């Protein structure tokens, strides 16, 4: 573990969460720096003050209402399931089944099914949005066998097979794999471009259900979304999705894998990816994000891939050391005054340059992610100076230069909201709420102009994307289960090959591959 | 019942019973953890009604997902992660600047006992007011990690699980949160009137 000094260690020391070496470093600092010692004492006092806060007591027993709510939700889920199946029968010849076990069976409470109502339709839409949003996207890139040129971009339909959005009467191999793996611990999803899904949408309120079904193919959850929220989403969705259809041109090979979140953080997954020559270049937590954020995030990753298309190597970003500050939780929040490495322009363009990226730059490469979001979020936080400072701190990277021009572009388009001194308070980063309605069309225009590619760009090879969807419903792989780990190693290259034969993923170690096959 | 009356079932046993169809077992889990969860969510959400709803919602969601609980962390950590996501979602929908805040310091539950000396009581209530106002001025991210660490006394490992952050980030975020809280408390001490007004955005 690194013993370089960081003031964070002070908190770790206070909480007794440091290694012996780190403790020694801190103690040496404390003995040499009275101000640091004073700060430590001050933080300790503050901690005691917090711990002395009185507890708030709940005045009632929730157990009965929890069990009642559960019963009601199961009844709704049962009705939704019926409705979803109807939708699938009418819209999709083949359905991807990812969770074979219905929730009611899993929790051991059998309930009678109720009839469909308008409310249930809302719940379908709302629950689908939640289902779609409850994912963690890890976008990784296959860099093992990049072609130097030539058109390798596959057609959209290549990824639509099995999605149900096109008339494909033959189950895709990917879907067959999916069916086979439905009961396994590691669940693979048929590859498909997000834009394809969007292209299948219409103004129907059930679109969201289709989205969830095509992405996850399992039972939507209903509890979290109120009718009003679902209605709001259904109202805003059509106008935006019609624009997002233009993303179809961004079709690129996408392989999706569903894994337990714990597994994603585990070392073995990284080892497998590393052996396959798959490098992680982007990581975005979309837990609870608006579906449109999922859409546009994926699009922004593609944009990023386009821009780095000519490069042969990329900085490896630790997937567990994520772009945490890009999480919707933070994006939807105010940037702390001391978060000098991050800047967000909310409700439109989020500009991110984190410590990770700066350190990546030391290795000669840096990736700067432009995350483009859509309303309905409406808070604006801009600290243009900090953005510039961050960008300047990473000079030498062409990507950072692009980011700089991106910023200039935003400024020219009046998308940067200047601080309102009357509301700035003592936190200069907090500025006025902007007029969302006024800003929205600008954001949309900028979004699609940004995503548009030149003909030259379009000819660049687009490498395969692996999207790892974190799903707590997928059982975790036991540490000793080598078969499951090897399965990922074997299945991934095959799925990539099917998506794009010209970009075959080959494990680095042939010996390891042979061993895997033996195990298999 | 052959079991001793005073035997308190472990979480794992209650979870297993729940998965076998025993709803009462889950009811016991709810009773066991509802106060702790509710208290944390009140601190996080700054709204007792929303916190109660979020608490209930978390238990319902946890019940639905119970079969996916692998025992890698404690049940409460797992439950809290669900609750945390639910609370964040609720807070986002109901932005603080668009809703009326409850003044956390005025909660009846936080009043001192009648046996307390008036001076002590006054001091304590002032401290509560100060800390609660300062907490209310933090952004959600910093408030959340402080509540989890200082009030729930979660380890960094559990914080990592709940917040879905690497431990290094937990440490750095926690430190930033502490420094921000320190600044806020100092600001409020220098501007006492601010303690009684609504928190900033």
What does it look like?
The complex is a heterodimer of chains A (520) and B (201). Chain A is of the alpha+beta class. Helices cover 47% and strands 7% of the residues of chain A. Chain A is built from 21 helices and 7 strands. Chain A has a 5-stranded mixed sheet, sandwiched between helices. Chain A is globular and about 75 Å long. The C terminus of chain A is likely disordered. Chain B has 201 residues and is an all-alpha fold. In chain B, 68% of the residues lie in helices and 0% in strands. In chain B, helix 5 crosses helix 8. About 4% of the residues of chain B have low confidence. At the A-B interface, helix 1, helix 3, helix 4, helix 5 and helix 14 of A face helix 2, helix 3, helix 4, helix 5 and helix 6 of B.
Task: Throw out a few tags for this protein.
heterodimer; A: 520 residues; alpha+beta; five-stranded mixed beta sheet; B: 201 residues; mainly alpha; 0% strand
Q: What is the helix fraction of residues of chain B, given as a range?
A: 55-70%
Low-confidence stretches of chain B: 95-103
Count of discrete alpha- or pi-helical segments spanning 4 or more residues of chain B: 9
- The general outline of chain A is globular
Return Rg of chain A in Å: 24 Å
Number of DSSP E strands of chain A: 7
- Listing every helix as H and every strand as E from the N terminus to the C terminus, the arrangement of chain B reads HHHHHHHHH
């Amino acid at each position: 573990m690194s013993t370089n000094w960081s003031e964070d260690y002070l908190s770790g020391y206070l909480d007794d969460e440091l290694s012996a070496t780190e403790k020694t470093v801190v103690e040496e600092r404390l003995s040499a720096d009275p101000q640091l010692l004073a700060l430590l004492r001050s933080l300790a006092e503050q901690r005691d003050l917090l711990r002395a806060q009185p507890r708030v007591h709940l005045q009632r027993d929730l157990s009965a209402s929890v069990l009642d709510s559960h019963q009601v939700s199961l009844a709704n889920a049962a009705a939704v399931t019926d409705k979803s199946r109807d939708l699938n029968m009418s819209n999709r010849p083949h359905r991807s089944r990812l969770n074979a076990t219905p929730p009611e069976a899993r929790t051991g409470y059998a309930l009678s099914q109720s009839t469909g109502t308008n409310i249930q339709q809302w719940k379908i839409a709302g629950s689908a949005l939640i289902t779609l949003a409850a994912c963690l996207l890890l976008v990784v890139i296959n860099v093992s066998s990049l072609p130097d040129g030539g058109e390798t971009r596959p057609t959209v339909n290549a990824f639509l097979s099995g999605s149900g959005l096109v008339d494909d009467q033959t189950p895709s191999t990917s879907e067959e794999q999916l069916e086979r793996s439905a009961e396994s611990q590691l669940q693979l999803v048929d590859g498909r471009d997000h834009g394809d899904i969007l292209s299948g949408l219409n103004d129907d309120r059930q679109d969201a259900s289709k989205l969830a079904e095509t992405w996850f193919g399992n039972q939507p959850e209903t509890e979290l979304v109120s009718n009003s929220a679902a209605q709001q989403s259904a109202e805003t969705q059509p106008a935006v999705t019609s624009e997002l259809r233009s993303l179809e041109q961004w079709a690129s090979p996408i392989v999706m894998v569903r894994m337990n979140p714990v597994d994603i953080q585990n070392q073995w997954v990284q080892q497998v990816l590393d052996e396959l020559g798959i490098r992680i270049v982007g990581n975005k937590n979309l837990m609870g994000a608006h579906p449109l954020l999922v859409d546009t995030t994926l699009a922004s990753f593609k944009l990023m891939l386009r821009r780095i298309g000519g490069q042969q190597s990329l900085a490896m970003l630790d997937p567990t050391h994520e772009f945490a500050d890009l999480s919707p939780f933070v994006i939807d929040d105010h940037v702390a005054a001391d978060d000098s490495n991050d800047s967000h322009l909310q409700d439109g363009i989020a500009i991110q340059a984190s410590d990770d990226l700066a350190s990546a730059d030391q290795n000669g490469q840096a990736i700067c992610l432009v995350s483009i979001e859509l309303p309905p979020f409406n808070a604006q936080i801009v600290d243009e100076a900090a953005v510039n400072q961050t960008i300047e701190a990473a000079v030498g990277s062409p990507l950072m230069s692009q980011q700089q021009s991106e910023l200039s572009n935003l400024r020219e388009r009046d998308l940067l909201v200047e601080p309102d001194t009357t509301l700035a308070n003592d936190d200069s980063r907090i500025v006025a709420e902007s007029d969302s309605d006024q800003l929205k069309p600008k954001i949309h225009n900028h979004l699609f102009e940004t995503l548009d590619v030149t003909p030259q760009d379009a000819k660049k090879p687009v490498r395969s994307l692996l999207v790892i969807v974190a799903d707590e419903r997928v059982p975790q792989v036991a540490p000793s289960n080598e078969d499951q780990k090897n399965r990922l190693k074997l299945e991934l290259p095959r799925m990539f090959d099917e998506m794009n034969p010209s970009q075959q993923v080959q494990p680095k170690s042939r010996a390891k591959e042979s061993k895997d096959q033996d195990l298999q | 019942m052959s079991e001793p009356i005073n035997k308190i079932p472990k979480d794992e046993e209650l979870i297993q019973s729940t998965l076998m169809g025993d709803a009462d077992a889950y009811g016991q889990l709810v009773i066991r953890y509802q106060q702790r969860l509710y208290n944390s969510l009140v601190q996080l959400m700054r709204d007792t009604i929303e916190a109660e709803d979020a608490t209930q919602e978390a238990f319902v969601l946890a019940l639905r997902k119970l079969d996916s609980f692998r025992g890698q962390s404690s049940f409460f950590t797992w439950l809290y992660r669900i609750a945390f996501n639910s609370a964040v979602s609720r807070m986002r929908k109901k932005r603080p600047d668009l809703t009326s805040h409850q003044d956390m310091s005025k909660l009846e539950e936080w009043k001192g006992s009648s046996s307390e000396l008036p001076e002590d009581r006054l001091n304590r209530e002032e401290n509560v007011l100060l800390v609660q106002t300062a907490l209310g001025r933090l952004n959600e991210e910093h408030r959340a990690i402080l509540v989890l660490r200082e009030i729930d006394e979660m380890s960094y490992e559990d914080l990592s699980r709940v917040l879905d952050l690497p431990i290094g980030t937990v440490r750095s975020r926690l430190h930033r949160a502490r420094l921000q809280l320190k600044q806020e408390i100092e600001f409020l001490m220098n501007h006492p009137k601010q303690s009684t007004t609504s928190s900033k955005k």
